[in-house]
Amino acid sequence: MPNPTISDLHVNTPLTDLSVAYTQDENNFVASKMFPIIPVQKQGDKFYVWDIDDYRRTDAGPRAPGTRAPQSGPRLSDDSYFCDRVSLGYPISDPERANADPAVSNLDADATEYLTQQIAIKDEQDFVTAAFATGLWFGASSTEDMTGASTAPATTTTHFLQWNDVASIPIEDIHGEQMSVLKRTGRKPNTLLLGAEVWNALQDHPDILDRIKYTERGIVTEALVASLLGVDRVLIANASNNTAAEESTSAPTNAFILGKSALLAYVTPSPGLRTPTAGYQFVWVGETGTPPSGMGGRIKRYRDEPIESDVIEIDKWRDFKIVGSSLGAFFTGAVA
């Protein structure tokens, strides 16, 4: 299939603006909400990293008359990001346009909605790989992941009783790791990200129900649990996807994308230099046209004459990047 010529290409601004819609409820998706979004002008570049341990000690001391003050300063290193490109096209054939009812523009809008949903699912999947998996976070009390156990664990430094068990102590488990991150970094985790099934178990947990029974409504909400746990945000990852191959003869295989784990982390509300945070989402907006909000993507429309179709295409360049691994604690297998 020959490539379209430049004259056939058109970045469609109205469709790009439309590319914030989701077939699933947009609140189901967390990849664009967990980490602050950093619009960047280059696809890849370096950024500075200040040594957090240097900020956690003091070299101040006595100073004798006529002598210099003790001197110190934080060590500086660098890290890098690289915004990978994700893309998908949706062909609309001439016969489809000719038979379309209502107006032709609705076909383009429908294609944009479909493509946006596809990118949102891909964002969630890539976020899991980059930041919601084992072996990535080192802020826990043992600097290892906290692993859920179906029976009382032999040690509480690396294991906990899964939160679907009424004998478990999720509030104490979470508070314990909050204190660990605070002691190690000077920052108390302010965000709790939960897989849908983890949230479902916590909603019915007797410890939580007992703590809220005298509240105005006595109904477990994200805001109420956030207040109970001492965090600013509780995010619920409700997005699911069908893992069966296209045109598979078997039944669809649906699963929640973020699974049965939880991430407790400090995420800065105000990104900036020398500002600690668990992670960022870098979004390349330079010449790409990707919305700086990180939502949706650039929508392009071009003519593919050999197949007698217009192609609606979505593009997005982004990198989900952990920049403070000690600012998070990961609970894997939080429920059975």
In short:
The chain has helices spanning 13-18, 31-34, 52-55, 94-98, 104-131, 170-185, 196-203, 206-212, 222-229, and strands spanning 9-11, 37-40, 44-50, 76-82, 84-93, 146-149, 159-161, 191-195, 233-237, 240-242, 254-256, 262-265, 279-284, 298-304, 309-322, 328-332. With 336 residues, the protein is α/β, with parallel strands linked by helices.
How does this model look, in words?
The chain is α/β, with parallel strands linked by helices and 336 residues long. It has one domain: phage-related protein like domain (phage-related protein like fold), CATH 3.90.1690. The chain has 9 helices and 16 strands. Strands 1, 2, 5, 13, 14 and 15 form a 6-stranded mixed β-sheet that branches. Strands 7-6-16-12-8-9 form a 6-stranded mixed β-sheet. 35% of the residues are buried. The N terminus is likely disordered.
Task: Outline the fold blueprint.
Blueprint: E1 9-11, H1 13-18, H2 31-34, E2 37-40, E3 44-50, H3 52-55, E4 76-82, E5 84-93, H4 94-98, H5 104-131, E6 146-149, E7 159-161, H6 170-185, E8 191-195, H7 196-203, H8 206-212, H9 222-229, E9 233-237, E10 240-242, E11 254-256, E12 262-265, E13 279-284, E14 298-304, E15 309-322, E16 328-332
Parallel strand pairs: 2-13, 6-7, 6-16, 8-9
Antiparallel strand pairs: 1-14, 3-4, 5-15, 8-12, 10-11, 12-16, 13-15, 14-15
